[in-house]
Amino acid sequence: MSEKAPFMVFSGTNSRYLAEKICASLDCPLGNMNITHFADGEFAVSYEESIRGAHVFLVQSTFPNSDNLMELLLMIDAAKRASAKSVVAVIPYFGWARQDRKDKPRVSIGAKLVADLLSVAGIDRLITMDLHADQIQGFFNIPVDHLYASAVFLPYIQSLQLENLVIATPDVGGSKRASTFSKYLGVPLVLCNKSREKANEVASMQIIGDVEGKNVVLIDDIVDTAGTITKAANIMLEAGAQSVRAIASHCVMSDPASFRVQESALTEMVFTDSIPYAKKCPKVKQLSIADMFAETIKRVMNNESISHNISFK
Length: 313
Fold this sequence. Notes:
The protein is of the alpha/beta class. It has helices spanning about 15-25, 65-80, 110-120, 150-160, 175-185, 225-240, 255-265, 290-300, and strands spanning about 5-10, 35, 45, 55-60, 85-90, 125-130, 145, 165-170, 190-200, 200-210, 215-225, 245-250, 270, 285.
């Protein structure tokens, strides 16, 4: 695309790798931005070129730590003050999404708070992918383009050409997501029912369905400590599965996740590159979502449908 296109793409520090891929797909330069860090931990954001009258797309996943979110908020504020025509937050991984409701007394709803922060900062649109809960879109009073990683995962699963394929979910809460995959591929669905004693620790798990002699693909949205998904893989192999793979949208992978994946029965663990993964685990593979987000940006600028041929629900 021409360098005089009526939009500009900028990136925060830790999502630059993805923004560069998006810009390569769009055939446009990545905008010049300076983020200055001070000795006390504060940082300041400045655009090093004019953005007056431009549609500004800010690429930044809000994964831990919270500096990524704060950086994005400052980028939004600076863009509004620099007279950008519109500011679009491109957040492939929307952090705090697991705090989408009050599940016990006296707790915050983190996802709503983040939505309010982004709205007050001044975004005009949000482009995100595989929210932990679809209803988070309702926390915003602006357009939300919710993409699905299935657009890259389904072709990958089909390319494996696995016989006796079964789609599975490591917990009942993800059954809707896994059901979408199983219906599209025309294969059976298997569920795992788990119980927890506390956060990030699985107490027990049971398989609902038949996996004997099957090639199983586990579907999830987030893998954090990998306790649930590796336990599900191990139980399925013990139940007679021929092989077990796992696919998840967001590669949080907090310690000791990489060790658990490597030591588990999983043949491979496939993520998108919504979050950078620097640790070394031979079983982990990342598929790029850059082309999908680039195409979405094009369609937003051209006022075209985004759902058609981009994302599978």
